[in-house]
Amino acid sequence: MGFFKKLKEKFVKEDEHLQDDSTKEEDVDNLEEDHDKEDEQELSTSIEEDVKEEVTETASEEGVEEQPKEEEVVEAPPVEEQEVQEEIEEVEEVEEKESISTKFKKGLAKTRNSFATKVNDLVARYRTVDEDFFEELEEILISADVGVNTVMHLIDELKMEVKRRNIKDTREVREVISEKLVDIYYGNDDEEIEEITFNQDGLTVLLFVGVNGVGKTTTIGKMAHRLKQQGKNVVMAAGDTFRAGAIEQLEVWGDRVGVPVIRHSEGSDPAAVIYDGIQSAKSKGADVLLCDTAGRLQNKVNLMNELSKVKRVIEREIPGAPHESLLVLDATTGQNALSQAKTFSEATNVSGIVLTKLDGTAKGGIVMAIRNELDIPVKFVGLGEKVTDLQSFDAHAFVYGLFADMLEESEQE
Ligand SMILES: Nc1nc2c(ncn2[C@@H]2O[C@H](COP(=O)(O)OP(=O)(O)OP(=O)(O)O)[C@@H](O)[C@H]2O)c(=O)[nH]1
Asked: Where, in this chain's numbering, is GTP bound (predicted)?
């Protein structure tokens, strides 16, 4: 069976059952807008309260066996806020019924429109496969941020496959491209990349690293929601004590998704916050602790020191933790994301990548570049700003999102 046919069988059927979600989306947006206004009010009140509050001494040095201070913990949202929250969740739950392929199709619209238009145009101009065709295809792939090395590798693979299958018609090459992209992504992993390795014997600790502005806080909030939906008991630790407003921003997310946030004041030792986070999560019998960190890429030595101290504290408290160190990258920064990934993987052991704002770029090929050039799996992708827009990465759904129009068109051919 052809690859397009396989993708169609897997995903198009799911799509056929879809209802029109536009009204639901509007509902969510309106509710979120109302809720955001409340968040802002809540935030300013909470900041005022914080200022009035006496700043308690914290476990600022490693090895200080202090219990978490309950007054620092932001508890679940108040009643009326919870009502709004429940309403949002209700609408979002319906929305979550959207198939994974639809999420990818919507999220990759920009990349698809640019990439697919160019490929279709190329196929229309070259009916038969030759060297010039491959040269132009190479340019299209590079312009989609697939990355020069990955493109070279892909083109070599394509040429071999075209020869092997004796393909003459350029339309057939589109199918081979989609097939090879999936091969590049999974490599030797046999399509079994685990999204999160959970600790089977207690608290799972997930560490989030990445430079400021990539959407780290939003991702942690979305992840908290996602894990809660899976029935996990979640706690967040506001370890980005460096960027102004980062702590409060995480607290807003905590309110929004109903997850407690362990915090200290701005400028305090991140390792101490994470330490308190672990103690608090343990005492609550939580399943997962999500740790935010600051990303000072400008100074690699500081970054390394800070991250290794945080990791040492986590490892000492829970042997084998952190269970995942997820690097958050902004897809819209293109090749810059690739160089950030290189720096962070030198500074710390990165187990997976969360690629945010994939919906905001026409250069979604960056997923392939990261996978092929760094050999780090993209475990999650951000496909929008809504709380439900964090998706676990699926290379088949990704390729489906890229080639959806061609799949539909190939049906008519
Ligand atoms: N369209 C889109 N926007 C996103 C996505 N992820 C995050 N954003 C937006 O990106 C902006 C920045 O995200 P934040 O989480 O606030 O990031 P930040 O606070 O600037 O920086 P850090 O938390 O330090 O990374 C926000 O407006 C988010 O809504 C995504 O997947 N898609």
From this structure: 210-217, 292-296, 356-359
- Enter the ipTM: 0.94
Q: What is the token pair recorded at 238? A: 């506001």
Question: Rounded CA gap, 104 and 26, in Å?
Answer: 19
Residues comprising the chain, all counted: 413
Return d(Cα 128, Cα 394) in angstroms, integer: 32
Ligand 1 centroid to Cα of residue 214, in Å, is: 6
Q: How far is it, in rounded angstroms, from Cα 392 to Cα 407? A: 23
93: helix, strand or coil: helix
First-to-last CA distance in the chain? 16
Span 208-251, pLDDT tens digits: 999 989 999 999 999 999 999 999 999 999 999 998 999 999 99
Distance separating alpha carbons of residues 169 and 123, to the nearest angstrom: 9
Long-range own/partner contacts, residues 21-26 (CB < 8 A, 24 or more apart): 21/95, 21/98, 24/91, 24/94, 24/95, 25/95
Residue of 398, 389, 396, 404 lying closest to 357 (CA atoms): 389
- In degrees and rounded to multiples of 5, residue 162 shows phi and psi of -60, -40
Residue 216 annotated in ligand binding: yes
| Nearest-CA residue for atom 12 of ligand 1 | 215
Looking from the CA of residue 328, the nearest atom of ligand 1 is 25
pLDDT of the residue at 83: 56
Amino acid identity at 397 = A
Nearest CA to ligand 1 atom 5: 357
pTM above 0.90, yes or no: no
361 touches 334 (CB < 8 A): yes
Q: How far is the CA of 213 from the centre of ligand 1 (A)?
A: 6
d(CA 336, CA 82): 40
Under 8 Å CB-to-CB from 109, ≥6 apart: which residues? 359
Ligand 1 close to Cβ of residue 225 (< 6 A): no
Residue 11 DSSP one-character state:
I
Residue that the structure tokens 């892909």 belong to? 154
What domains, with CATH codes, occur in the chain? 100-191 (1.20.120.140), 204-393 (3.40.50.300)
For residues 184 and 366, give the distance between their C-alpha atoms in angstroms, rounded to a whole number.
13
